[in-house]
Amino acid sequence: MPLNDLQIKKLRATDKQLKKADGGGLYLEINPKGSKLWRMAYRFGGKQKLLSFGKYPEVSLAKAREKRLEAKILIADGVDPQVKKNEERKQAIAETQNTFSNLKNELIEKKVKEGRAASTITKIKWCFSLVEDALGHRAVAEIKSPEVLDALRVIEAKGNYETAHRVRGLIGEVFRYAIATGRADYDPTFALKGALIAVPVTHRAAVTDWKAFEELLKAVWSYEGASPATRAALKLMAILYPRPGELRLSRWNEFDLEKGVWEIPKERTKMRRPHQKPLPPLAISILKELHEWSGDCELAFRSDIGRAKPISENTMNQALRRIGYSSTEMVSHGFRASASTLLNESGKWDADAIEAELAHVGSDEIRRAYHRGKYWEERIRMSNWWAEEIAGMVK
After folding, report:
1. Residue 243 annotated in active site
2. 272 is catalytic
3. Catalytic residue of the set 68, 336, 371, 379
């Protein structure tokens, strides 16, 4: 006999679980603690199954009957209502938890644990902030290519074409991470190849012939402006040709001036592997002189602004501007191209030894080990020769 609201209200809990049927598989379960729960028993695929519709009175008798009817319609259509309910629950979770914003945060946290530099993490966060309003709230599984393109078009509209390409790459990383963790099925950025405005490839400005390089060195060594850290940094960029961030963020404990070795930690290298560089006598003498100015600090190239801040790459570039080199003629990173070109042109050194010194290594583990092991002695000789050439040009 079907239930009615008055009857349900009069039902009282006992020390045993009670079941009151409404018909069609629907019944009210009264637990010893007093809760009243709607259930529906049904068969699907030859198996006995059970649906839960919620708690009375939050789910009324009329609402429970509506749910029963919906379930029976699904069964008649060959759909298991329990499976459909689970799918809807997963979809709800995806919409609230597996959003682009949450997946993006997980990816950033992964990069932090992998040792990415703080400056890199800051840049990544900034790039993601450009599409947060458009994509952040969306479930990653629902985001399609046109939606991503629309978000990138906003960046392009401001003339920031290179940034748009960078953001597209980062969005792609989020989706590949989502695919790997089972929260998305495809990467919508793959279809966007060629859809963004192309960015012309530009190489960093650098001096790459001996005569012009000699003129640059003389200008650097005669420069008396800026701080001791900036002057020393420019000289060491020429002698050691590291990446600017590797040098300006260096700590004194990385330099072994007795052994003549600089140990660059993996957190600051592009390949996220520690890198050793031999220190020729000229570099050691510059570092010793710098130590008299900043030796009481952790940072070797501390800023004039504060002891806890390093000089910036812009500081080095501005110094180059002051000695007469425009941004199209020379930048701090250009010392790497200068050294690479001139060392190769000299014909004195194995090309692989030069690549190893520049920390240009491939993905093959054996080849990396080969670079580090076989070429170390040659790299020491090469560093000394390079420094002596520089010393001769700045006399």
Report:
1. yes
2. no
3. 336
Q: How far apart are CA 50 and CA 152, in angstroms?
A: 47
Q: What is the pLDDT of residues 224-263, one digit of tens each?
A: 888 999 999 999 999 999 999 999 999 999 999 999 999 9
Q: Which of 67, 104, 275, 333 is catalytic?
A: 333
Same fold, 100-192 and 210-393: no
pLDDT digits (tens, 9 = 90+) for 305-330: 777 889 988 899 999 999 999 888 89
- What Rg value do the Cα atoms of the chain yield, rounded? 33
Out of 161, 186, 223, 370, the active site residue is: 370
- 5-90 fold: Double Stranded RNA Binding Domain (3.30.160)
Residue 360 among the catalytic residues? yes
Instruction: Give the containing element (helix H, strand E) for 176.
Output: helix 161-180
At 318, phi and psi to the nearest 5? Answer: -65, -35
Known active-site residue 153:
no
Please confirm, yes or no, whether 375 is among the known catalytic residues: no
Q: Would the CA dihedral through 363, 366, 367, 373 be positive or negative? A: positive
**Catalytic residue selected from 360, 368, 372, 374:** 360
- What's domain 210-393's superfamily in CATH? Intergrase catalytic core (1.10.443.10)
Q: Domain 100-192's class?
A: mainly alpha
Is residue 270 flagged as an active site residue?
A: yes
Of 168, 231, 243, 379, which residue is the catalytic one? 243
Q: How far is CA 313 from CA 223, 271, 387, in A?
A: 17, 20, 23
DSSP bridge pairs for 268: none
DSSP class per residue in 54-99:
EEETTS-HHHHHHHHHHHHHHHHTT--HHHHHHHHHHHHHHHHTSB
Q: Which amino acid is at 178?
A: A
Taking residue 88's Cβ as centre, other Cβ atoms within 10 Å add up to 10
Question: What's the Cα-to-Cα distance from 287 to each of 232, 254, 312, 355, rounded to whole Å?
Answer: 8, 12, 18, 24
What are the extents of the domains in the chain? 5-90, 100-192, 210-393
